[in-house]
Amino acid sequence: MDTQPRWHLYLARALLKNNAIMPGPNDRVTPHNVTSPGEHPDTPFRGYAALNFADLDGKYRGSVLSEWRSLNLKDSFKNITPEVWIYNTTTLRGLAEALIERYCLPLEPTWFVDGPFDPTVLPQTVTLETLRTHVVPSAQKIDVVVNRGSVDLGALISNDVLESPGVPYTVLTGRASAEMSYSVDFTPDIPEHFQQLLQYPTGVIDPSKYEHPSVKLLVDLIDKRFENGRAYYSTGGAPDFNFSGSKLIFVGKPKDYVPSVSKPWAPRPDAAYDRVIVIEFSDSNVGRAGLGFFHFYEVS
Predict the structure, then answer these.
(1) What DSSP string describes 225-252?
(2) What pLDDT, on a 0 to 100 scale, did the predictor assign at position 91?
(3) What's the Cα-to-Cα distance from 38 to each of 34, 70, 196, rounded to whole Å?
């Protein structure tokens, strides 16, 4: 038994269990003449295995022929490329779990080769590879299109009670900024305003810079895009986007943005958009603080 491939042992156990075969305490069960699905054109999803029974001295006690079925990933997704939608998954087995759940596959995430996955650049195509098991007898590879899933804050914290920070204050640092902005498109309604957004002024926003056409345009877009959202300039203010003391961090193509903290969890723009404005809001004001990402498409 020890010289058999591990998936052969899985297969033997599965055949014994499914066929209610109860070997004796001194029986040794060995899969023999195993054929994999796809070896015969007339049975592309079926394989066969003979289970040989012998006692501890190796004396032959009999055998049984069993038919087994397996899953071929490429045949399961023939002529289509599977897609999954994920949020903040950082491993290949996490993607495998999403694939299994979406398509109801009779597999386990642990049957896939694991490895790191970068969820900051989506959509992208990822190749998943299986290990050898009794369900997937040979290593198989399949390409999966990975898309960014919508963030449902209610679902994420449905079983938790959040403590109030004491003031109406929403932090935009860490992953929170990405959650706030990835689902919002700030593409101007008027094509001529595209170039105007690219001219967002540098430096700290003071009362004079707040009147800059690019700033006023972004303020107007925030008011339109966010439900019950409001942007303003004030030394006091409400729990919204206070531009007082804010400053431009970056404006340009998302792929050219370099976070100040080189960590996997550092927020990055969504590369699906053509341009992004990254603004740091002052934590000295009541309202949102930290980084805000405002994505928009190129229009002409």
Answers:
(1) HSTT--EE--SS--SSEE-TT-EEEEEE
(2) 92
(3) 12, 9, 60
Tell whether domain 73-148 is in CATH 3.40.1000: no
Residue 291, beta-bridge partner list:
280
- Six-digit token string for 41: 């054109």
The CA angle 200-286-227, to the nearest 5 degrees, is: 65
Question: In this structure, what token pair is assigned to residue 141?
Answer: 């590879």
Structure tokens belonging to residue 75: 């045949």
pLDDT at 156 over 90: no
Q: Give the confidence band of 114 by pLDDT, cuts at 50, 70, 90.
A: very high
| Extents of the domains making up the chain | 6-69, 73-148, 168-296
How far is it, in rounded angstroms, from Cα 186 to Cα 196?
13
pLDDT band at residue 1, thresholds of 50, 70 and 90? very low
Strand-pair category, 141-148 with 124-129:
antiparallel
Tokens for 273, please give them.
Answer: 């958009």
List of E strands, the chain: 28-32, 46-54, 60-69, 83-86, 124-129, 141-148, 231-232, 241-242, 247-252, 275-281, 290-296
Torsion angle in degrees (nearest 10) through CA of 211, 214, 220, 226: -130
pLDDT higher at 104 or 150: 104
Name residue, tokens 């190749």.
Answer: 127
* Local structure of residue 63 (DSSP, 8 states): E
Q: What is the pLDDT of residues 243-256, one digit of tens each?
A: 888 999 999 999 99
The yes-or-no verdict on residue 92 having pLDDT over 70 is yes
Smallest CA-to-CA distance from 219 within 279, 297, 285, 284 is with 279
Average pLDDT, the chain: 74
Strands 275-281, 290-296: pairing is: antiparallel
Q: Report the alpha-carbon distance of residue 7 to residue 237 in Å, rounded.
A: 64
CA 189 to chain centre: 31
Inform me whether the pLDDT recorded for 171 exceeds 50.
no
Looking at the DSSP bridge assignments, the partners of residue 83 are 145
